[in-house]
Amino acid sequence: MNFLDQPRQVWVTAFAAVIAFMGIGLVDPILLSIAEGLHATPSQVTLLFSSYLGVQVLAMLVTGAASARFGAKRTLVAGLALIVVATVLCSLAATIGQLVALRAVWGLGNAFFIATALSVIVGAASGGQHKAILLYEAALGLGLSVGPLLGALLGSISWRGPFVGTAVLMAVALVLCSVFLADDDGPRRRIGLLDPLKALRHPGLLRTSLGSALYTAAFFAVLAWSPFVLGWGAVEIGLIFFGWGVCVAVASVWLAPRLGNRFGERRATIAAVLAFAVLMLVMAVPSKPLLVVAVIVSGLVSGLLNTLFTGTAMSVSDAPRPVASAGYNFLRWLGGALAATFVSHLAQPFVVAAVCCVLAAGLLAVGRTRQAPVTAEAVLVGEDVVG
Questions:
Q1: Total count of domains within the chain
Q2: What is the CA radius of gyration of the chain?
Q3: What is the number of other CB atoms lying within 10 angstroms of the CB of residue 183?
Q4: Is 193 domain-assigned?
Q5: CB 92 within 8 A of CB 352
């Protein structure tokens, strides 16, 4: 079956996911502009990442329960509505404290959207879970590439511009999801608030999630710190991260499945995360041209790791997909939140990021990450909530 031959609700959800993921890299090109406009320090500005991700991490624990109780469509639409409100208010913020707090609200909405969107796409996509995950990670890559570009173009006018642009696009996604996603009918299984944490008792899922958390910490060291090292304008930073994001999307969809099939997901993931460690050490060299090249090339490795980690996490245990997704995303984004919080306080952020990647490779190399078959129960939980 053609990879692009998917039901309408899959494409609508994927489009909304692109816009949602734009929020991660949106502020990259305007970090210096925000610092200047709101008279903030670099450590205060990087809180825009940590507040966004920190709230998102905690909310991930309740996304599965919310989706099971209210249905995927209602949960997803509620998350989009929160993002629209938060982005509009971000454009009106008068202090860095207000902006950080509003980014936290944005992160709350994103949590309800991201975990639910993955479940919706996996449950509704044609061609099985493998192709569905490729679609989800392609949306991630496109969002990460378009976000910095939009931030650069609108940020060259005002740092408030990117937030207004995102609000408009997210409002469009909200309308499309409200109209075209299937209604939340049919039986639903009860999912407890602690079920995502209980799912992490599975050794394979725990190792995969912790490895992803360590890699994601390095991932956000690149996002949150490299703009300050370069010290360039919004357009220059935006173009660099646009190239980086395109590499993420290409590697997610085309390179990751080929390498995974040829060498096995486990070996491919270990090799890729070690390659990311090498790139982190290259970024630590005090050379701006070298940093630019390393940032863009790191997009290829990030695309591989995003798809390989997610594919493994969604199939390594017999937990229902919404539960496994919530537990995995909880640890995955926790790594990003911690990195964004502490990166400005480290003497050598990229060296620490390299160490995190080596530790991730060590975790993956220990034991066997056996991929469990997807049970009928897991399939039903994922599909019942999308109608």
A1: 1
A2: 19
A3: 10
A4: yes
A5: no
The CATH number of residue 130's host domain is 1.20.1250.20
b/e for 276-287, b at 16 or more Cβ within 10 A?
Answer: bbebbbbbbeee
Instruction: Specify if 2 maps to a domain.
Output: no
What gap in Å lies between CA 38 and CA 94, rounded to an integer?
A: 7
Three-state secondary structure along 194-216? CHHHHHCCCHHHHHHHHHHHHHH
Show pLDDT as tens, one digit a residue, over the chain (387 residues).
455 677 888 888 888 888 888 877 777 788 888 888 999 988 898 888 889 888 988 888 887 778 778 888 888 999 999 999 999 999 999 999 999 999 999 999 988 887 688 778 877 777 666 777 778 777 877 887 788 888 888 888 888 998 998 899 889 999 999 998 887 665 556 677 788 889 999 999 999 999 999 999 999 899 889 988 999 888 898 899 889 988 988 898 889 989 989 998 889 999 999 999 999 999 999 999 999 999 999 999 999 998 899 888 878 888 877 788 778 888 998 998 899 888 888 999 999 999 999 999 999 998 654 544 433 333 323 332 222
| 333 in a structural domain | yes
Report if residue 1 sits inside a domain: no
**Which domain does 16 fall in, by range?**
8-384
